[in-house]
């Protein structure tokens, strides 16, 4: 590409039409989720007295962040047109790997954490590589890795420790420093702020910037929207998609570290089902299931709705078993809103 | 209107020098042989027209030059060097830009994002460098206006434009980024008379700016207006390969329409 860029003329921006604010807002992916979040927030404010404190707001944020961090990656991947069903169990794979490696060999937890990161990135790469090289839908490939990891998590843990949970690692070197990074909290006044909330905000901001304002973001939308056209104009489709799978596994590792250093010990069977929570957060946040449309802020709002409802039901004193039913209704509503928005924004405007 | 081409054309181009040379090129998809024994030269400052019926291998031919599918027989040389493109990105880096008939745009993305897709302007080379959004919008808008396309809002999803307008965006993009070779796969098929005229002017302007142009079309009239060199494909092989001096519009039309077969058909249908 040898072209030079001529200085941009700015003469005729006068007759360019800027659509009305309302229709510009309607075209944004997160608008449906934002409206839903406000309604749900007011709903619990009215019905659950204990929901009304700043403390419980930050507890909701914490709950949202644990789902939200991986959901950001899953959202990016879905905008890129692929699924990752192994994203729930990889969180526990990461934690179990670190924990048992360091316990068994008696090495510093930093070594285990870094090896675990490398292992998770490799898993993400394998997911992406298999999807791109075989052309089999990512739904099937990652369903496979999901079962492999789920089984291996239990099997290996049983082999190493003899039980289905990992030994307490809080006495191993490196626990304190890693704990500071992944699972510490501080108090401002009466509220407790977990670092995971700050990390969540950071990851959302990074993802939002990447999607809207960088070359890679442009490529993510393109490979999700129309991979053949994207390739034809020179977008590296394979690299972009494999990279997205690795982002998901990186964020899965990150939350795995949080879980491990927060609770010192992990259940080997954990994480199953969370992959759907991530997908729901992304879809509720306006991500199109077929790819090519969505944004990171929307996914964050989706995760926040999850946090609000899962705790709000408890604060309101209802049977928490209703939570899943509520989640299902949210998902259905979100899909309908998305369908409507997509029709609106792609319909040809007359005149 | 055509200053974009003159501005962006590689200054090192000399009229008449070969840019793309194909020798005995063939391509098979499994057991199906889509193309065989093709010899084609694309010279700087000349328009090579490739004509042929449906399924003659025209699209396969340009997909080889533009890097979409690698060829599996013969040799492809660009600027005298043997190449085998693994991806369209490699072809683009040689200054070869293509307007595909079927692979034009990503419908849900904004017009300006589509225009710059794969060749975005960024503020730096580091991975998270910001896009120069304002500049890209201005350039996309200006280039489209030069083609006579005024979009209501450069930020609207390109899926909201008509088929012809989308095609024009794809052409404007190729003209903007194709520094050495411009390949157009039936660019006028979806266009009206006026827009077709604009496209033909672009083809002529690209030729005058010293680019090598490969112009694929069904329409011998369009081809004869701008072409320097004509190749007719039939069932994956070359049926005619003549320069403008050697062939007239009548012969071209007749060959294109099937020559003797057409005479036979008109005899059968005689009323």
Automatic annotation (TrEMBL), chain A:
InterPro entries: ABC_transp_permease (IPR001851)
GO molecular function: transmembrane transporter activity
Protein name: Xylose transport system permease protein XylH
Keywords attached to this entry: Cell inner membrane, Cell membrane, Membrane, Sugar transport, Transmembrane, Transmembrane helix, Transport
Location(s) in or outside the cell: Cell membrane
Species in which this protein is naturally found: Paractinoplanes atraurantiacus
Transmembrane spans: 31-51, 57-77, 89-107, 113-132, 139-156, 191-211, 242-261, 267-289, 296-316, 322-341
One GO term describing the cellular component: plasma membrane
Keyword Transmembrane appears in the UniProt entry: yes
Function: Part of the binding-protein-dependent transport system for D-xylose. Probably responsible for the translocation of the substrate across the membrane.
One protein family per Pfam: BPD_transp_2
Main subcellular localisation: membrane
Membrane topology per record: Multi-pass membrane protein
Automatic annotation (TrEMBL), chain B:
Domain ABC transporter: 20-260
TM annotation in the entry: none
InterPro entries, per the entry: AAA+_ATPase, ABC_carbohydrate_import_ATPase, ABC_transporter-like_ATP-bd, ABC_transporter-like_CS, P-loop_NTPase
Gene Ontology MF terms in the entry: ATP binding; ATP hydrolysis activity
Superkingdom of this protein's organism: Bacteria
Alphabetical UniProt keywords: ATP-binding, Nucleotide-binding, Sugar transport, Transport
Protein name: Simple sugar transport system ATP-binding protein
């Amino acid at each position: 590409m040898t072209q030079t860029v001529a200085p941009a003329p700015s003469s005729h921006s006068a007759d360019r039409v800027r659509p009305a604010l309302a229709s510009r807002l309607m075209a944004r992916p997160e608008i449906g989720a934002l409206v839903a979040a406000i309604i749900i927030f007011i709903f619990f404010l009215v019905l659950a007295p204990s929901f009304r404190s700043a403390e419980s707001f930050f507890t909701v944020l914490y709950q949202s962040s644990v789902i939200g961090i991986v959901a950001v990656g899953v959202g990016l991947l879905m905008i890129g047109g692929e699924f990752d069903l192994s994203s729930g169990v990889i969180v526990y794979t990461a934690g179990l790997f670190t924990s048992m490696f360091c316990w068994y060999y008696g090495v510093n937890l930093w070594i285990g954490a870094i090896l675990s990161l490398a292992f998770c990135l490799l898993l993400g790469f394998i997911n992406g590589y298999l999807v791109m090289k075989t052309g089999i839908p990512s739904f099937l490939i990652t369903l496979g890795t999901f079962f492999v990891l789920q089984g291996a998590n239990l099997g290996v843990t049983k082999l190493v420790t003899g039980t289905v949970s990992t030994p307490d690692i809080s006495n191993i070197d490196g626990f304190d420093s890693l704990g500071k990074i992944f699972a510490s909290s501080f108090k401002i006044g009466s509220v407790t702020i977990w670092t995971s909330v700050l990390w969540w905000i950071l990851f959302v901001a990074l993802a939002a910037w990447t999607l809207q304002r960088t070359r890679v973001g442009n490529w993510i939308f393109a490979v999700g929207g129309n991979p053949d056209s994207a390739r034809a104009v020179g977008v590296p489709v394979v690299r972009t998609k494999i990279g997205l799978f690795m982002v998901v596994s990186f964020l899965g590792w990150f939350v795995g570290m949080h879980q491990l250093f927060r609770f010192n010990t992990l259940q080997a069977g954990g994480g199953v089902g969370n992959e759907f929570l991530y997908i729901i957060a992304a879809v509720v946040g306006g991500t199109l299931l077929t790819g090519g449309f969505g944004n990171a802020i929307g996914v964050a709002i989706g995760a926040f709705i999850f946090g609000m409802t899962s705790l709000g039901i408890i604060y309101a004193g209802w049977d928490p078993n209703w939570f899943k039913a509520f989640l299902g209704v949210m998902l259905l509503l979100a899909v309908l809103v998305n369908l409507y928005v997509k029709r609106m924004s792609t319909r040809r405007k007359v005149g | 209107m055509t200053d974009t081409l003159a501005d962006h054309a590689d200054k090192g181009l000399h009229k008449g020098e070969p840019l793309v040379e194909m020798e005995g090129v063939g391509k098979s998809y499994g057991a199906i042989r889509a193309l065989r024994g093709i010899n084609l030269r694309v010279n700087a400052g000349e328009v090579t027209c490739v004509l042929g019926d449906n399924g003659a291998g025209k699209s396969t031919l340009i997909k080889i030059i533009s890097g979409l599918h690698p060829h599996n027989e013969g040799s492809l040389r660009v600027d005298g060097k043997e190449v085998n493109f693994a991806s369209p990105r490699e072809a683009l880096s040689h200054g070869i830009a293509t307007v595909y008939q079927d692979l034009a745009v990503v419908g849900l993305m904004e017009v300006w994002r589509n225009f710059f897709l794969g060749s975005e302007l960024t503020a730096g080379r580091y991975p998270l460098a910001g896009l120069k959004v304002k500049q890209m919008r201005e350039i996309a808008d200006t280039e489209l206006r030069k083609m006579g396309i005024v979009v209501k809002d450069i930020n609207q999803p390109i899926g909201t434009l008509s088929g012809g307008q989308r095609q024009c965006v794809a052409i404007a993009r190729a003209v903007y980024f194709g520094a050495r070779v411009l390949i157009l796969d039936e660019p006028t098929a979806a266009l009206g008379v006026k827009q077709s005229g604009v496209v033909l002017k672009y083809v002529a302007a690209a030729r005058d700016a010293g680019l090598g142009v490969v112009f694929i079309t069904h329409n011998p009239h369009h081809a004869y207006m701008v072409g320097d060199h004509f190749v007719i494909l039939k069932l994956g092989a070359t049926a005619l390969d003549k320069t403008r001096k050697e062939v007239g519009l009548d012969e071209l039309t007749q060959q294109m329409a099937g020559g003797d077969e057409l005479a036979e058909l008109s005899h059968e249908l005689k009323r």
